[in-house]
Amino acid sequence: MSSAGVAPGAGPPVTGGDTAALVRRVAEAGVPRTVGIVCNRQKYESFYGAGAILSPDGYIITSTTVVPAGAEEIKVYFDGAAVHNAKIVETSDDLEATVLKIGARDLPCFPVTREVPELGTAAFTFSNAHNTMEMGGRASFSMGVVSGYFEVENLGGESCYHGPAIETSAAVNPGSDGGPVVDERGQLCAVLSLNALPGRWQGVSVPMGQLLDRLQIFKSGKVRLNFNPPVPPPKDGPGALACRAKESSGCLVGITVRRKFPPEMLPRTSWDDWRKRIKGWDKLGLAQKEKRFSAYTDVETLLEANQILRRPPVALTGLVISPDGHILTSAFNLGDDLVFKDRSTGKPGKAEIRNDAAELIEAGKDLVKDSNPVEKIIVTLPDGSQKEGRLLARHEPAGVALLKIEAKGLKYCDPATSAQPELGAQVGLIGYVGGKLVRYTLNTGIVSSTSRSRGMWFQTDALLNYANSGGPVISDQGRLLGIALAPIQPHTVIGRVFTHGELTAWTVAPNSGVSMVCRIDRLLPSLADLKAGKNITRMPGGFLGVALDPREAFSERVVLGGVQPGSAAEAAGLKTGDRVSKVDGLPVASWKEFSEQISRRQPGTKVQLVVHRKNIVRHLVIAGRKVENEAELKALMEKLKPGEKFEGVLVQSNVRTVTVTLGEAQ
Amino acid sequence: MTWNRFPLFCRLVAGCCLAFCLFAAALLPAGEMRPNVTALCNRVKPAFVFIGGGSGVIVSPDGWMLTNSHVVGDVKQFDVRTGDGKHYRANLLGRDVTGDLAALQLELNPHAKTPYLEPADPETLHVGDFACAVGNPFAEGLVDQNPAFTLGVISGLNQTTEAYADAVVTDAALNPGNSGGPLVNMAGQLVGINGQIVTRWGLRSGTGLGYAISSRQIRLWLPRLVKAKGGEVPHGRLSGVEFEFSEEALWKVARIKSVVHGSSSDQCGLKAGDRILQFDGRAIDNAIQLARTLRMYPQDHEVSVRVEREGKPQNLRVKLSGVRPGSLGITLAQPGKNDPFVRIAGLAKDSPGQQAGLKPGDEILGVEGVEFKMPAQTQFRLLHVWFEKRVFAGEPVRIKVRRKGSDGKTTPQEFQVLPK
Fold first, then answer.
1. CB-CB neighbours of B125 under 10 Å
2. Distance (Å, whole) CA B338 – CA A262
3. What share of chain A is helix, strand, coil (3-state, %, to 5)?
4. Do residues A569 and A578 touch, judged by C-beta distance below 8 A?
5. Of the candidates A120, A113, A112, A150, which has an alpha carbon nearest to the alpha carbon of residue A237?
């Protein structure tokens, strides 16, 4: 493979293979134990999702969002495309659970546990994502960690489970509901629900303990469950990240931000509620019923998509960095949101459930845009006590804010003991969640890139959402690497319902796996300024005010894709389409080199650029004077005396030297 | 019913459990379950390529590069940069638009070599294996030109999507901008080319469900793509064969209903009544599965086919014909308000339609055994699409018409037209 001294990409495996083999075993064992389920109710409502086989004789656990009470034509799809008809044994709306039975024997089934796995240990999901199993596909497997254990409330709508819930960072998609969550010992520990913690939107599942204790069929002992774990618990306990996260969680605070206009949750609906509002429902024909049902699902998806892009009313995360109450969080958490106000009432527009998605959007038509400033910051300490926080300063380019509360002797995380992120290394993103169970959450990932935004940030694939924005990101050595930044771009908006078209304009949504983190090692030099209350609004270094031409992003040509009005570049006469070949005599062959050259210099310094413009510059030199346009020619003509002889030269050049005085970054 | 599948099923699974327990007694994870991939990232980085709004990967020491066809679009030449910042010109070698794969040649200095990734042997991959994706999601790496690495596992293998005939599913975070980039295993081999993601609620972010074009597909297509001289490599087809077509039959069996005389399938020896058991070594359970499998191959590819004929298995070699758009030379008349069917307006001279015996004025009752029962306007649109997109050169099309005879009576007739 290797030739001519060039290192090929392939090489020996990077892992010892022990854990890799374990994960493979869990996957191989779980896929055939997972089923896809499809059913109908009243002929016009259709449902699909996943389920887990519980016993060799065909008891299957799933969710009421997959098989609701009264469902008919329940088909269970097995790995390998076999299909069986199933009957409902028991359903419980409170637990969001349905138990099915098919006629079978000797089925492979999941071993079950009542125990709630420890936070940060591996968790696996198996899913009939997008109903691929009905089409003969296999269950899809995903790996994450047990990222949280907290109480969830009845969200309304289809998802009605309330109680303790196990959250996972493994993939959850439409069609995952009802599917198994498996712990690192290969046991079924929970069933995926459609419920979620507003502001986190990760997979929330109902613990098996709840189901086994509260469902009649399990209490009756009719189901032959297998409680033998295929794997004994790891002797060393949970992994390093889980342990480190537990230690760090003592420095974690919850931050509640009150703005002028409180965030409003969009109305939720369920098909049952929706149907009750339709007049003369019973008299409608099947086709009409189908039409209404599909209108409902349109509205539901639009509401959910909108919901994910507004700030939910939950506590956010901050990190105590001094015993006397300095707290770091993301500047996003304290940002002034946008609000769309009703022109007549001056209050945020209110969405109401209408007949269809088009009407829902119409509802928010006569709106004016305004800002929604922060009015009060409340900090919840690890002991549960609350204090009012004061914003000391913001570091805009870093994306963080420093808060202060009046306190003494707090447990804190010293930023001076921070480390640099290493590409590919394991990291944990810790978030605050509060409540009585486990008061922090842990999403794990790797360092995706060590440098973003001129080296101020790094990137990780750990899931980042509203609630864990502002939380610390730690290494598996327990060293602080950074503070998690904004979960969405550009910013959160209330008072309006956006169309699907408008929503796609949002580039980054929560939990995309592209998460930006402010590097603590880069923030350290500014920390004293922030503590002294000095806002930092600009990147250090010189600023030109030009944008890259994306078409030339990877070429050897530095081409300007745009010039910012009022910038140093505009003052110096630079134009869109100009190509820069040299900076102070040094050739630049990439945008990276060019921007490094500029930001290395201080604002106010003069820099000489060699600029190539596409349109050839033609000018006359008459009697030794440069004439660039008609006005100059006229002025020159007036100065010349009749009969005077002069020489004219036509100069053609597409190169010129431009001197720019660098400005400050914006 | 498919109950008889279960005993085998259970034996396999029991085997699994046993292995599971034995294994567990010996080995347990001491630290993190997921591996540290620092060394892997640094090794893979120089073979990664930034291209346009997407990603790519170098797959040979002399500079063959792969990306998605949708990343390349209609552009033939690119400026690209590798993950370690080297600039190259890249020229299009060939595209598979349907399968979403494109090969380019990096302009290297004479005798220069470049780091590259070798496509993994598909037989060595398993669901649950760790996999690392490299890409430029949301173009975040545009300025500092550092690709982003995301770690996950292989969630599924041999999956079919609308676009991909043989996809690797992964839960490594994939987002817009990852398209065309590599999915690698822990040995640094190419598992697939990332290309499709499932988004949620219309937002453009990934949800832990991403699809990559498998290394099996890469191994099959790369040699053809690099010889395509900048053009398209057509997909292969089993032409001139009709399968039993009922909902039950489609899911239960892949049995040939008829073979067109003189078609390539006929020449390869396929016969009506044959049941396809294996195609290129893959067991075939039903016609749907066969159709999915067929989408994997380029034209002129030769495969072994095992059929059951009169109760006995038989092996054949079949050469897949190319999917070349064909023409019938038929012009359709816009139907009037009360017309029940679409009329043929005209036939080009010496066109396949004319040679087959069709005449202007014939009313089209159906195509390929499908009888039209919808309004004539809908028929017109359907026929238009059918004749434009679903007619292939050398593959006969059966057209049923009714024609008014000299005696004023209309009689339905079927014509077989061989498109050019």
1. 21
2. 61
3. 20, 35, 45
4. no
5. A120
Residue entry with tokens 């001056």: A346
Strand pairing category for B182-184 and B130-135: antiparallel
Q: How far is CA A370 from CA A171, A495, A497, in A?
A: 37, 10, 16
From chain B residues 169-228, the ones with a CB under 8 A of any chain A CB are 169, 171-176, 184, 186-190, 198, 200-209
* CB environment B69-96: b (16+ within 10 A), e (fewer): bbbbeeeeebbbbbbebebbebebbbbb
Mean pLDDT throughout A3-17? 36
Per-residue pLDDT tens over the stretch A440-488? 999 999 999 999 988 999 999 999 999 999 999 999 888 999 999 999 8
Dihedral sign for Cα B6, B12, B16, B18, please: positive
Q: What is the dihedral of CA B404, B406, B407, B413, to 10 degrees?
A: -40
Query: Judged by CB atoms within 8 Å, which residues 244-273 of B form the interface with A?
Result: 251
Pairing mode, strands B275-279 and B302-309? antiparallel
Q: CB-based burial of residue B32 (10 Å sphere; 0-12 exposed, 13-18 middle, 19+ buried)?
A: buried
The pLDDT > 90 percentage for chain A reads 55
**Which tokens belong to A381?**
């300490």
pLDDT band at A285 (very low <50, low <70, confident <90, very high): confident
Bridge-based pairing of strands A59-63 and A45-53 is antiparallel
Query: What is the Cα Rg of chain B in Å?
Result: 26
Highest mean pLDDT: which range of A227-236, A614-623, B376-385: B376-385
Q: Please give the average per-residue pLDDT across B302-312, as a whole number.
A: 93
Average pLDDT for B196-222: 86
Neighbours of A598 (CB within 10 A): 25
CA distance A501 to B81: 33
Query: Which stretches of B333-389 are DSSP H helices?
Result: 352-356, 376-389
- Specify burial of residue B333 (Cβ count, 10 A radius: 0-12, 13-18, 19+): middle
Phi/psi at A489 (5° precision):
-135, 145
Label residue B338 exposed, middle or buried (CB < 10 Å: 0-12, 13-18, 19+).
exposed
Specify which residues A426 forms β-bridges with: A446
Chain B CB contacts of A476 below 8 Å: 31-32, 36
Closest CA to A300 of A279, A275, A281, A282: A275
Own/partner contacts of A278-287, CB < 8 Å, gap of 24 or more, are A286/A43, A286/A44
Specify the length of chain A in residues: 666
Tokens of B187: 């040995």
Kindly state whether A8 is in contact with chain B, defined as any CB-CB distance less than 8 angstroms: yes
Tell me the backbone φ, ψ of residue A282, rounded to 5 degrees. Answer: -60, -25
Are residues A309 and A509 in contact, defined by beta-carbon separation less than 8 angstroms? yes
* Catalytic, out of B55, B60, B69, B100: B100
Determine the distance from the C-alpha atom of residue A551 to the mean position of all C-alpha atoms in its chain, rounded to a whole number: 28
Q: pTM for the complete prediction?
A: 0.85
Q: Give CB contacts under 8 A, 24+ apart, made by A289-296.
A: A289/A42, A289/A43, A289/A44, A290/A44, A293/A44, A293/A45, A295/A355, A295/A356, A295/A357, A296/A269, A296/A271
Rounded Cα distance, B279 and A107, in Å: 30
Handedness of CA A398, A400, A406, A412 (dihedral sign): negative
Output the pLDDT for position A505. Answer: 67
A26/B128 touch (CB, cutoff 8 Å), yes or no: yes
**Distance (Å, rounded) from C-alpha B55 to C-alpha B82?**
10
Q: How high is the ipTM of this complex? A: 0.89
Q: For this structure, is B285 an active site residue? A: no
